[in-house]
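Appendix B, example 12.
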Amino acid sequence: MNWKTIFNPFERFDDKLLLVIGLLGTALIVLLGYYWTGNSFISIYRISRMDKVTFEAIAIPTFISFASAIIILFILGRILNNKTRVIDIVNTVLISQLVVSVMQVMDKIPLIKNTQARMISQKAHPSEALPIWDLTVTIGIATISLIIMIYSITLYYNGFKTATNIKKWQHITLFAAVSLLTTMICQILISKYF
C-alpha cells in the first residue's frame, strides 16, 4: 500500500467492496448516534447533537444529507462527463464521510469530555489560571479534527475526480462551489426540521 492508495482508494479497490464498506459504515454511524453519542450528520461535514434522540431523529437527517450530496454530485458528474456512474459517486460520499465519523465519538472519550468541561468553566471564570494541560489537549483535539477533515475532503475530491475524470480548473472550481452550496443548504434545511 502506498500514499496514492491511502489518498485515493477509489482507483485501487473494487467499487463493490467500497460500496459494502460505505453502507456498513453508514449503518455504524447511525447506530453509534442512536445508541451512544446522540449525534447525527445534518449535512456532510457537519455533525450535530440531537435534542431528542430517537432512531428516526438520527437516521433521517444522516440519510438525507448523504443522499442529497450523492444526487447533486451525480447530476454534476453527468454534466461534466456523461459516463459518470452512480456507484462511484455513492462510494465517494460514503467513504469520505466514514472518515468524519471518527469525530462523532470524540466528545464521548472521558479525557476529551472532562477537558471540554474544564475549558468551559475557565471561559465562565476568566480570572482563574489557564489550565495548560487542558489547553494542550484542546489544541491536540483541534489538530486531529483538522487532519480528519482535510483527509475526508481529499477523499471526497479524489473520489469525484476519479468518477468523472475532471481535469480542468473550471470543473474543479464548479465542483468545490456546488459541494459547498449543497452542504450549506442541506444543513439549513435539516436543522429547521430536525
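Residues 9 and 17 are 11 Å apart (CA to CA). Strands lie at 39-43, 46-49.
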